[in-house]
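Fold it.
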Amino acid sequence: MFKEKAGITAGKIWEALNETEGMFIKELKKKTKLVYNDLYLGLGWLAREEKITVTEDGKELFIKLSE
């Protein structure tokens, strides 16, 4: 059940990022309408699969799909 939720959440995040050149974490949260716990669950899944690149810009995280 937990792995299924992580996969579904990762899919929502991937779809949102696929439409852009990347987003700050707050923008991504707003776009996906996910709570932070689920957002970070999905981001962890995508990071482990090396599907995203995460950089820190000041105090915010910027996330984009890996090339």
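Helices lie at 2-18, 25-32, 36-48.
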